[in-house]
Amino acid sequence: MVNVEDVLRARTRISSIVKETPILTSKQLSEKVDANVFLKSEHLQTTGSFKIRGATNRVTQAKSEGTNFITAASSGNHGQAVAYIANQLGIPATIVVPTDALSSKVNAIKAYHGSIEYCGTTSAERIPRAIELAEDSDGVFIPPYDHPDIIAGQGTVGLEILEQVEEVDTIIVPVGGGGLSSGILTAVKEKRPDIRVVGVEPEIGDDTAVSLKKGQITSVKGTDQTIADGLRTTQPGDLTFPILQKYLDDLVLVSEDEIRFAMSFVMERMKQLIESSSATTVAAAMFGKANVVGQNVVCVISGGNVDIQKLDELLVNTGSDK
């Protein structure tokens, strides 16, 4: 299992590429939550999400092992992050994306000089193809979350939170495959076990909640229906799930309407465009799901790569609360 020493080593390894992202605050948000709310702003990170942390840690390690080719399977933040760091390190990268991938996401990967291959519409189709490409060219496949280097890299978010916010009571983190959440848990719980860490999932993307309840990794269907597209995993990872079981204090669910409201509130009041996946943490605080009244609470904002053409579908009117 990944430990805090792995996270500390990852921090040193990725420091020349990855930025220390700022903590943002909003008086209106804190008043609405009735707590001191801090946003850990990974939407302002290189490539627009936390994914660059784990990708940099893993690709850097792969390069040190002599690889000359990198693959990944993702049309989103992970694909962009892998393409970016591979290009920075001078390693060719091919990103396998779905046939229905949005042109904006494909163009972002191309902007980081990643090659594109289209394959199917599901991760069950894309991942085997990316692995096959890596094996055929003696390369390395970079998984999105279920790898020690990925987990350790994402855990550097937790280290920064501990240094940036005094007297943290609760950290709220979005849970998809579990790379970010398990990394933060490892860093925080091994250094400050008194800090409460709450995970959050969409109600219609509750694979981790179901798995925790059953005490074993459980696959669920229908997660592709949530607007929180970064959290559309069907089950947690083999490596991430035991960490969540060991350290997570609570896991809460938020509705699609709550996600939309939180995303809209942050954009309107704080002038920050965040992803719907990121907005789950704010929603958990705003709608009383995480029980943080009177606390110092950090909401992890995982990314900000939003398809501008879909903003009308994601935003709602928050005018009644002005």
UniProtKB/TrEMBL annotation:
InterPro entries: Ser/Thr_deHydtase_PyrdxlP-BS (IPR000634), TrpB-like_PALP (IPR001926), TrpB-like_PALP_sf (IPR036052). Keywords: Lyase, Magnesium, Pyridoxal phosphate. SUPFAM superfamilies: Tryptophan synthase beta subunit-like PLP-dependent enzymes (SSF53686). It comes from the Bacteria. The keyword RNA-binding does not apply. The keyword Glycosyltransferase does not apply. GO terms for biological process: D-serine biosynthetic process. It catalyses: L-threonine = 2-oxobutanoate + NH4(+). Coiled coil: none annotated. Residues 15-303 form the Tryptophan synthase beta chain-like PALP domain. It is an enzyme of class 4 (lyase). CDD domains: Thr-dehyd. The modification N6-(pyridoxal phosphate)lysine is found at residue 51. Pfam families: PALP (PF00291). Its EC number is 4.3.1.19. Transmembrane segments: none annotated. GO terms for molecular function: ATP binding; carbon-sulfur lyase activity; L-serine ammonia-lyase activity; magnesium ion binding; pyridoxal phosphate binding; serine racemase activity; threonine deaminase activity; threonine racemase activity. Its cofactor is Mn(2+); Ca(2+); pyridoxal 5'-phosphate; Mg(2+). Belongs to the serine/threonine dehydratase family. Catalyzes the anaerobic formation of alpha-ketobutyrate and ammonia from threonine in a two-step reaction. The first step involved a dehydration of threonine and a production of enamine intermediates (aminocrotonate), which tautomerizes to its imine form (iminobutyrate). Both intermediates are unstable and short-lived. The second step is the nonenzymatic hydrolysis of the enamine/imine intermediates to form 2-ketobutyrate and free ammonia. In the low water environment of the cell, the second step is accelerated by RidA. This is threonine ammonia-lyase.
